[in-house]
Amino acid sequence: MFFSDFDNDLLLRQLSGNRLTVLYRLTGDENTAYSKAKDICTEQTVEFPDSLLPEGAIADQIVGKIEDFRNEKENSFLAAVSYAEEDAAGEFTQFLNVVFGNISIKRGIQVAGLVPGKNLLKIFPGPKFGIGGLRKILEIPQRPPLFTAVKPMGLSAAGLAKLTAQFAEGGIDIIKDDHGLSNQVFAPFEERVKRCAEAVGEANVRFNRKAVYVPNISAPFEELFDRVHRAKELGAGGVMISPGLTGFDTLRALAAAETGLPIIAHPTFLGSYVMDHSQGISSGVLFGTLMRLAGADATIFPNYGGRFPLTPDDCLEIVNACRSEQEDMPKIFPCPAGGMELKNIPDMLRHYGKDILILIGSGLFRLGNDLIANIRQFRELIAKE
Amino acid sequence: MFFSDFDNDLLLRQLSGNRLTVLYRLTGDENTAYSKAKDICTEQTVEFPDSLLPEGAIADQIVGKIEDFRNEKENSFLAAVSYAEEDAAGEFTQFLNVVFGNISIKRGIQVAGLVPGKNLLKIFPGPKFGIGGLRKILEIPQRPPLFTAVKPMGLSAAGLAKLTAQFAEGGIDIIKDDHGLSNQVFAPFEERVKRCAEAVGEANVRFNRKAVYVPNISAPFEELFDRVHRAKELGAGGVMISPGLTGFDTLRALAAAETGLPIIAHPTFLGSYVMDHSQGISSGVLFGTLMRLAGADATIFPNYGGRFPLTPDDCLEIVNACRSEQEDMPKIFPCPAGGMELKNIPDMLRHYGKDILILIGSGLFRLGNDLIANIRQFRELIAKE
Q1: Inter-chain contact B97–A180, Cβ cutoff 8 Å?
Q2: Which pLDDT tens digit goes with each residue over B119-129?
Q3: Are A272 and B10 a contacting pair at CB < 8 A?
Q4: Going from the N-terminus, what domains does chain B have, and what CATH number goes with each?
Q5: Strand runs (DSSP E) across chain A, as ranges?
Q6: Which of B153, B182, B222 lies at the smallest CB-CB distance from A46?
Q7: CA gap B363, A22 in Å, rounded
């Protein structure tokens, strides 16, 4: 009655029929969980009472549809809800909004899986390099690349560059900024990137290495792309970004810009989505599926057995989401991290295989006073496995 | 020993001595909670073992300091941790990273309050309009402005504009897009904004109103500012953005750009931070303090008593954070929402006073078949209070 002019035929002509499907884990008994699924269909789309919607394609296609609903375990159900792909408007921002917008503020709902439709996969083609591209750049066909972080915050650009040189000399393949280094007065971005990239370049020549330096370019909106371009000019071999700080769409825009630099994603500020298995976004979807879809070539995640509380199952979900077969979409490197030490390596390799980046940060300093010797231990351990 | 070249005097000269202070709520017994506070000091800054840091200003000033630690209630402690302002590099992205970056991935830590230092407050000056500026634009000196959303998704631009005209005719002051309307094929941004802004303009003349139309400009990174400028050209009276989708820094950049349009912030996709009072970010800090600091002039939040699970205390925290006295920083409109109906209005006014926006969405449609008559009820209720 409010929408007497509604033109159902016009809307039908504008819908492709492709659907975006999200798997939700819903807490409660069967009735409660099913009510949640019904509510999601509306809350994530029209936000309007069913009984007042005009008949036709809004109710039938724009509103979410429950495609499957099943019991998973006691007090937990899985609902597959599909949406018209057009609801997401071909935008990563609005895509996230359809997947988990307002319902992020409701209890007992977790995004446990997602499958974009055909058109969205064309619009979000994912990573430009992936595992294959990164291995080619590093000239490492098989073994896991060695990865570390330059820190601590508070050192000067010269001090950080000196460490970077030692990392490259010792045999680290990818040397990234700690994710808290941005443009602090004591190690400004430009000077830091220049000095660190030069240090790596020199060590590569002197010690016959192929190491790359990857600066952190999580930065203010207005400056982010300038930093990326400047990093490239100064010799960076990739960039690191934290989508929790910049927004996921910034990662997507960075990949779409095809700067020629591989992208490593960092999980900072995103933890609240994964702290509770009954709500939020599953670790696999957040640190795996979404990072890959948005265009990361590698995704750092907080591995079990270190400083962070993810479980082995959470971590395996992430690894699988990074490396699942997806037509046309490159697989990406999962990168278990967060307080890893050399002693964790055999376990990582056994569980995840060799297509991972192995990030040892302060663990390299804890091994003894000679950093180069410590890195040699790291290298030999990987070579041996 | 790793940092023999560390120049402590240089670093000291680069630090202003100003501190950024964060209040953390920590779960556990006293020892556990205190250990968490100590861990935060390191995790959020140097991510490096204390015992291996060079002596001097890194350990003393860059690393966080516990300024206060006290028992709050059983199994819950409050720790005030201060950081050198320079850790945040004058960037909203890195500021969020210092406040709650990696520790977002640890259990039992909630950001319960924050006080940026002097320099950060100059860099993040907050809203351009605030309550006073918005009231001036709307020519409403005292009563709460009436606020609604145009929906449902699936209507054409013409259909949405027709509703918008009725809202303005009825007497709604601020008419915003539903937060899920972006650039869908059935109501493209440009056409929707043009038609809706025109509809409001015509109704304003015909019915002697001062209503404004506020489009949603949450959009891809590359297009967002174009949409803002286009919205202005087409006659929008403000813009709405969802920092959960675009990143908080995009809100900050939008306010800094001084487009002349007030900004309304929407809470979508941010719920996981507030679902559990023992971790994440408190509702007051997330929907109040951070939105205001980043430059929102009004912040929509999920009010208690509607479809969302926030408590009255959570909501009061948000309202207080929006309107607390802060030297030089305008107060902003809190906007209780999320399934509000006319019957909730007396309660909102009693608890929050008149400096709020009152957002009734589909509640306006539920009152009866005559939308204009329904809005009249809304208006009369506000006039009476």
Answers
A1: yes
A2: 999 999 999 99
A3: no
A4: 8-123 (3.30.70.150), 130-384 (3.20.20.110)
A5: 19-27, 65-73, 76-84, 109-115, 146-150, 174-177, 212-214, 239-241, 263-265, 280-281, 298-302, 333-337, 358-359
A6: B153
A7: 28
Cis peptide before A49 (omega within 30 of 0): no
For helices A312-323 and A345-352, the axis angle rounded to 10 degrees is: 50
pLDDT interval class at B162 (50, 70, 90): very high
What residue in B sits closest to A218 (Cα-Cα)? B93
Position B207 pLDDT exceeds 80: yes
pLDDT on residue A101: 98
- For B307, phi then psi, to 5°, come to -90, -5
Say yes or no for a CB contact (<8 Å) between B249 and A246.
yes
Give the span between the Cα atoms of A122 and A327, in whole angstroms: 11
Does B52 contact A362 at a Cβ distance shorter than 8 Å?
A: yes
Out of A49, A220, A271, the one facing B362 most closely (by C-beta) is A49
- Residue B57: in which H helix or E strand, if any? helix B57-57
Interchain CB distance below 8 Å, A86 and B185 = yes
pLDDT for the residue numbered B327: 85
Instruction: Tell me the pLDDT band of B194, cut-offs 50, 70 and 90.
Output: very high
What b/e string do you get for A226-235 counting C-beta neighbours within 10 Å, with b at 16 or more? ebbebbbebe
pLDDT beyond 80 at B323: yes
Q: pTM score, two decimals?
A: 0.98
Ranges of chain A whose pLDDT falls below 50: none
- Which of A104, A155, A253 shows the shortest C-beta gap to B271? A104
In terms of C-beta density within 10 A (0-12 exposed, 13-18 middle, 19 or more buried), how is residue A373 classed?
Answer: exposed
- The predicted structure's pLDDT at residue A157: 98
Contact flag B163-A2 (C-beta cutoff 8 Å): yes
A-chain residue closest to B101, CA distance: A269
pLDDT digits (tens, 9 = 90+) for B346-379: 999 999 999 999 999 999 999 999 999 999 999 9
DSSP E strands in A94-155: the ranges are 109-115, 146-150
Structure confidence at residue A327 (pLDDT): 85
Contact A155, A186 (CB under 8 A): yes
Total CB pairs under 8 A between chain A and B: 320
Which residues on chain B are in Cβ contact (under 8 Å) with A249? 220-221, 245-247
Among partner residues A184, A242, A253, which is closest to B221 by beta-carbon distance?
A253
- Chain B residue with CA closest to A282: the answer is B272
pLDDT single digits (tens) B20-30: 999 999 999 99
ipTM of this complex prediction, to 2 decimal places = 0.98
Given B246, B274, B307, which is nearest A93 (Cβ)?
Answer: B246
